[in-house]
Each structure stands twice: as structure tokens, then as C-alpha cells.
Design brief:
The chain is about 50% helix and about 5% strand. It is mainly alpha-helical. It has three domains: about 50 residues, no CATH class; about 50 residues, no CATH class; about 110 residues, no CATH class. It has a two-stranded antiparallel ribbon with strand order 1-2. The longest helix has 21 residues. The chain starts with a helix and ends in a 20-residue tail after the last helix.
């Protein structure tokens, strides 16, 4: 991490001095050029670890600090994390556990709780195929937004309360607002904002797999796609990318005479 920052800074200072001395540019123009050189540097937008061609079995403490911070906070390490890295303590199990606990307790963990489930569960695909308005006239932007919010809030509840992993796929509760409650056919009174709600056995809505966001992103807007849904479960939940389909040998269900 330190080498990345130094590399960007050295490049900016060099560009600034060159523009001023060799080309006689004004302070403002030279500053603009120096800043542009930083923004286009791969060291600015990449987290580089080690040297090209170098093979190592583990990260050094500064690299570990960057991994932790950008994963949990989507930001650079803070001073306590840098201090642990400078002192060569961060790789020690007790220190590492203490730092992770501290980072999880920090409000910046909200960034992780929002971004991780979106990436993990591919929630950006919600709304990619808009439902046919003739089949689903009740579908609207508020419902679509609420569907994604249910899943991210559900993940946050699991994480913050350290709930059992099985509740990710089977639970008697979810996080709802009034729009989703109506969509799911849950009787009132309905919550205004996102609220944890206990579900009756008749709803069949416990767990992530039955949430509207997941059912939406694994369909095409007009029909269910069980093969695509199964492939999504294999990839997102079981961490196994299914093999490509076999060569086409005719349409399924075709009359074979």
C-alpha cells in the first residue's frame, strides 16, 4: 500500500516540476496536468501487491491492511490499521482478529453490507428483464427497489446478529416494507420502512432463495427459467460454475415421429 501511494506521488511531483520548468506552464495548468497523470496511473486504481514476476506465499502487513480495508470498508486503511502494519503485528492471529472485530464495529462496515450481497448474489440483474406489464401490471420501480433492499437488509441482519448459516436459506422471518408486504400478500398492518417481520408457514418466503429479487433475476420477465435458476444457485450459493450445455441435438420436446 505504501509503495502504491509513493509511486503516485512521485509521478505527480515529476509531472508538475516538468511542466513548470520545461514548458513554462502556469501553476494551475501544471497542477491540472500533474493530477491527470495520477488519475490515469494504474497504481491509482489498482491495488498492486509485490513486484511483477514475484512469487510469494503470503501478503506483507501493508498489503494485508489494504485487503482488509478495501474489502470491509471500500476505503483505504485508517491509522490504527496502518500502525499495526508498520509494527509488523497485523499478520499475527490475535492482532488480526482484533482489527477485524474493530472494523466490523465501525459504521463504515455498512458499505460492505450494501455492496457485498449485490455483487455476490448478482442483484444488478434485478430489473434487467422487465416483467411483461400485461402479466404483472402491479410491477413498478418502488417494488423493484424494495426487492433489492429486502435482500441487502436480510444479509445485513444475518451478519450483524451472527445468525446461523441455515437461516440464509430457511427462516421464519424477512425484512419488509409496505410495498413488499402487499406484493407477498402478507396481511397488515404493514410497516412503513424496512422492518423485520415474522412469516407464517403459509407464505413459503423464508430465506434468500424465495425472495422476489432472486426469483426476478433468474427469470426473463415472462416465465420461470428453472435451468437458469439452477445454474445461478450452483454458481452463487454453491460456488460451482456449471459446465456448458451439451451440443444441441434438436429441440427439447420435438416430435420425433
Amino acid at each position: 500500500m505504501a509503495s502504491v501511494g509513493e509511486g503516485c506521488g512521485d509521478r505527480a511531483l515529476y509531472e508538475f516540476d516538468r511542466r513548470r520548468a520545461e514548458e513554462g506552464e502556469s501553476f494551475r495548468s501544471a497542477y491540472r496536468s500533474a493530477l491527470a497523470s495520477v488519475l490515469v496511473s494504474r497504481s491509482f486504481f489498482n491495488l498492486e501487491e509485490g513486484s511483477p514476476g514475484e512469487k510469494r506465499a503470503r501478503l506483507n502487513d501493508f498489503e494485508l491492511a489494504s485487503r482488509l480495508s478495501y474489502f470491509l470498508w471500500s476505503s483505504m486503511p485508517d491509522e490504527p490499521l496502518f500502525a499495526a502494519a508498520r509494527n509488523g503485528e497485523l499478520h499475527k492471529p490475535d492482532t488480526l482478529a482484533q482489527q477485524v472485530d474493530r472494523m466490523i464495529a465501525d459504521p463504515k462496515i455498512d458499505r460492505f453490507l450494501e455492496s457485498f450481497p449485490r455483487q455476490w448474489l448478482q442483484l444488478h440483474r434485478v430489473g434487467m428483464f422487465q416483467p411483461d406489464p400485461k402479466l404483472y401490471p402491479e410491477y413498478d420501480p418502488w417494488l423493484e427497489e424494495s426487492m433489492v433492499e429486502e435482500t441487502t437488509a436480510y444479509f445485513a441482519e444475518l451478519f450483524r446478529k451472527n445468525l446461523l448459516l441455515r437461516e440464509a436459506v430457511d427462516s421464519n422471518w424477512t425484512i419488509l416494507n409496505s410495498r413488499l408486504a402487499i406484493h407477498y400478500g402478507i396481511p397488515g398492518p404493514h410497516p412503513r420502512g424496512l422492518t423485520r417481520v415474522k412469516l407464517g408457514a403459509e407464505t413459503n418466503r423464508g430465506g434468500i432463495l424465495t425472495q422476489a429479487s432472486i426469483l426476478s433475476l433468474t427469470s426473463d420477465g415472462t416465465r420461470h427459467r428453472p435451468v437458469h435458476r439452477g445454474a445461478w444457485v450452483s454458481e452463487a450459493i454453491l460456488a460451482h460454475t456449471p459446465p456448458p450445455p451439451p451440443p444441441k441435438r434438436g429441440s427439447a420436446g420435438a416430435d420425433r415421429g
